[in-house]
Amino acid sequence: MLDIKEITIVIWEVLALLYINVLPVHSASKNIINGIPWYDQNGKTVNAHGACIIQDAGKYWLFGEYKSDNSNAFQGFGCYSSEDLSNWRFERMALPVQKEGILGPNRVGERVKVMRCPKTGEYVMLMHADDLGYKDPYIGIATSKTINGEYKVKGALTYHGQPIKKWDMGVFQDEDGKGYLLIHHGPIYRLTDDYLSIDTLVAHVSGMGESPAMFKKNGMYYLLSSNLTSWERNDNFYFTATSLEGPWKYQGLFCPEGSLTWNSQCTFVLMLPDGTPMYMGDRWSYPHQASCATYVWMPMQAEGEKLSIPTYWHSWDIQSKKPSDVLETASEVRPLSFHSKDARKEMRIRFKGTHVALHGKTGPHGGYASITMLGQMGDTLYSSMIDCYSKVPHEGIRLITPELKYGDYTLIVKPTGDYSTWSDKKQRKYGADDCWVSLDKVYIFSTFTNH
């Protein structure tokens, strides 16, 4: 028979197992982890690129391009909400593919931005709409009475009665409530009071590139922009001015030269509650954007004319604005020596826990790998891909799987034999030159994260 001590231990073990199995399957993390897929309340990848965030009703609302893995055609604009910028809830497709028009089938919809108009109370959505050949550009406009839509397309934004036939765009809302449209290569337009058309051209910033993003701090306006390298990352740069009308001053790079803006392209800057500007960038992965394109969000240092993100953080704490180690709670770390491009070869990792993190390298010779998580009965619980390409070599976290109930699982990693490659309008070639997959560690977690 068991003595009292042994009975007590058994009871606590049973209670622990019961507790583990009733825990929710989402992370309580308060960290932002860069360069890996994020998951919503259903364990699906957060799919919101070329995005923006607005704060409304005590929440953060993320709007972005809902990408697919096999086409650049418009799939819709997704809407997500969060209370902490780390745990995201999919709300709905805020604007789906339309039956016809500038955002109809076989069109492009990009750079979605949303602002609440102070005069009307409406939520106004602006975006780049185009054909698949990028030869029929418009700035589209849609509105909704509620933050999470569904938004109704109003047509194309006009200036002097004519549509603006440009592509990359951003928006900025000043402290006085006036809204502005930012266009690639320099134009800054002030919107009318209802945000539904253009009032006037207030400035033209000579030397600006694509993907414009703007914020204001302590009376200084900062305008971020990228060079023109299609989906490839490049060293983004910025301008400053004390007035939107200018003069605008070119200031150079805000990340170390050669870092390619920490392998990302700017899309938006969110002002955090303490006044810290948070850079939002996309790490594109054409053509597998839905699975493999990820995000780089980092706090920026802004003082006078100086703007910088001096170092890259794999993960950082939202409250302290300091780097964090999301791998420190792993219960086990196993070395891996997986370096393969053979689509017939796979690596199986059997583990007992809640989730795993894969660590490895990216570089110019890297390709795609498929990731599959199997349950104890061999059923597929999760599948996705990772991209091991980057023009600048990098080492770090490649993937953290969704958190599941504590149990026995098998993770399968398999090179797909393909890689990220594309050409731009001028037929210049970009992307990887091979399809290697390189992983060196797996971190196994036995409990849910709670950083």
Walkthrough of the structure:
By secondary structure, the protein is mainly β. It folds into two domains: 34-323, Tachylectin-2, Chain A, CATH 2.115.10; 332-445, Galactose-binding domain-like (Jelly Rolls, Sandwich). Helix content is 6%, strand content 47%. It has a four-stranded antiparallel sheet, with no helix packed on it. A hairpin with a 2-residue loop joins strand 2 (49-56) and strand 3. Mean pLDDT is 92; it is low at 1-28.
Features:
single chain, 451 residues, mainly beta, Jelly Rolls, four-stranded antiparallel beta sheet, 3 helices, 36 strands, globular, disordered N terminus
List the SSEs and their pairings:
Layout: H1 4-22, E1 31-33, E2 49-56, E3 59-65, E4 77-82, E5 89-95, E6 107-116, E7 123-131, E8 138-144, E9 152-156, E10 158-159, E11 162-163, E12 169-173, E13 179-183, E14 187-191, E15 198-204, E16 210-217, E17 220-226, E18 237-241, E19 249-253, H2 260-263, E20 265-271, E21 277-283, H3 289-292, E22 294-299, E23 301-303, E24 306-308, E25 315-317, E26 322-323, E27 332-340, E28 347-353, E29 355-362, E30 368-374, E31 380-387, E32 394-400, E33 407-415, E34 421-423, E35 429-431, E36 437-445
Antiparallel strand pairs: 1-25, 2-3, 3-4, 4-5, 6-7, 7-8, 8-9, 10-11, 12-13, 13-14, 14-15, 16-17, 17-18, 18-19, 20-21, 21-22, 23-24, 25-26, 27-36, 28-33, 29-32, 29-36, 30-31, 30-33, 34-35
